[in-house]
Design a protein that fits this description.
This protein is 29% helix and 33% strand. The chain is α+β, with helices and mostly antiparallel strands. It has an eleven-stranded antiparallel beta sheet. An eight-stranded mixed barrel has the order 11-14-16-17-18-19-21-22.
């Protein structure tokens, strides 16, 4: 049995890519704190190097016998083989397997059981190198947990019947919230509404956000304002909103809506000519929201990215800081893997209207298009910075215009 324990530990140690996993763990711990679900579990895994070895139940592994019986019912430590051929070294109560180690050619599982199936808290290591720790239901990963694959990629959050859903964020006053606005926040048509800058407070996070602690009443800690689109469209309220935000001490940045009908260089020049850049401003943003047909019409993803790079490089030369890429989750999944340099070298701001946080490294998450902000008429896009106050202060120090 000792040999089995050593073997499992060796498999786990080899299966998890140490360098990549350590980097992933460092990033996770840098962007989270004790308020986030599962934080202590990740800290324990990161600091102690927990793998299957830590969670092997001690009592069942001390004895290698057929089992203890009370009458005709298993009671205590024993060995069993189920109908699928899986062998369990486990603890039984009233003829029911309640905790132990189960193994077959595909997976080693250690943890709680109910009716012979993994149920409750447990961890597993599969033959293809996927380590998982967290909640289980009927032999499936279900509830909160984290997984690390053989490449070292870390996924932390909610699981639904073996499907990874994402991290469900807990919204508190400790987080850093912001908004993005355009001319639509001033009304449509002839009806115009002013922004009451001295009353700005986030009062509602949007229809999909249900995990808020207490009353939602958060300060607006940053604002991005639309400045331009393509090479001919300007937001008529940009300049006045920019100046009023600065007067109220709110960190502010500008964004450009990218068009597939003209060159990235021309759009960059138009943005630069019509946008204010001052010390302390947030990095400029390129809003990229093309349809599949628009990407195809440009000549495909690589043609699109040539124009995107031209915009980014021109604006960086003007401002001295790397711009932020604003994209959708669909764009990240479908196109961004074809531009690894952009994913690696630029901050990403993702629009994903779900209760689950995007599974990608990002600076800002636009979590809702229909939030409410005191002082602004109508619906407002709500954003949350990926981190807490320490990371936000660092972002303001290192990423803003000098």
């Amino acid at each position: 049995m000792k040999q089995l324990t050593v073997l499992i530990f060796a498999i786990a140690a080899v299966a998890l890519s140490a360098a990549t996993l350590n980097e992933e763990l460092k990033y996770y711990l840098d962007r989270h704190n004790v308020q986030d679900e599962g934080y202590e579990m990740i800290v324990n895994f990161a600091t102690n190097g927990d793998t299957m070895l830590t969670h092997l139940p001690a009592e069942p592994l001390q004895l290698l016998n057929v089992g203890r019986w009370r009458g005709f019912r298993r009671e205590g430590t024993g060995i069993d083989r189920d109908t699928l051929g899986r062998i369990s070294f486990a603890h039984y109560e009233a003829d029911t397997l309640v905790t132990g180690l189960r193994t077959d050619t595909a997976e080693v599982y250690s943890g709680d059981f109910a009716q012979g199936l993994a149920e409750g808290h447990g961890c597993s290591l599969t033959s293809d190198g996927l380590y998982y720790e967290g909640q289980w239901a009927a032999d499936r990963r279900h509830g909160f947990g984290f997984a690390a694959d053989s490449a070292g990629h870390l996924r932390v959050g909610q699981w639904l019947l073996d499907r990874y859903m994402g991290e469900r964020m807990s919204y508190t006053s400790e987080r850093i919230y912001g908004i993005d606005i355009s001319r639509y926040q001033h009304g449509k048509g002839k009806k115009k509404y002013p922004i009451v800058w001295n009353r700005l407070r986030i009062a509602h996070l949007g229809n999909n956000q249900k995990n808020a602690a207490g009353t939602v009443d958060y300060p607006v800690s940053f604002i991005f304002i639309k400045s331009t689109e393509s090479t001919s469209i300007r937001n008529p309220f940009y300049a006045q909103d920019y100046l009023r935000a600065r007067q109220h001490g709110i960190p502010i940045g500008a964004y450009h809506f990218f068009s597939c009908k003209t060159t990235g260089s021309a759009q960059a020049q138009y943005f630069i000519q019509n946008t204010l850049f001052r010390q302390g401003d947030l990095p400029p943003v390129l809003d990229i929201e093309p349809s599949h047909s628009q990407v195809a019409a440009m000549g495909g993803p690589q043609a699109l990215f040539r124009h995107v790079r031209a915009w980014l490089q021109a604006v960086e030369r003007r401002t001295g800081v790397k711009p932020i890429l604003y994209v959708s989750q669909m764009f990240v999944n479908r196109y961004l893997p074809e531009a690894p340099d952009l994913k690696r070298d630029y901050h990403v701001w993702i629009a994903r209207y779900s209760e689950y946080k995007p599974d990608v490294r990002l600076a800002v998450w636009q979590l809702s298009p229909n939030g409410r902000v005191t002082g602004i008429h109508g619906e407002v896009d709500i954003n949350v910075f990926n981190g807490y106050r320490t990371q936000w202060d660092e972002f303001l120090e290192t990423a803003t215009i000098k």
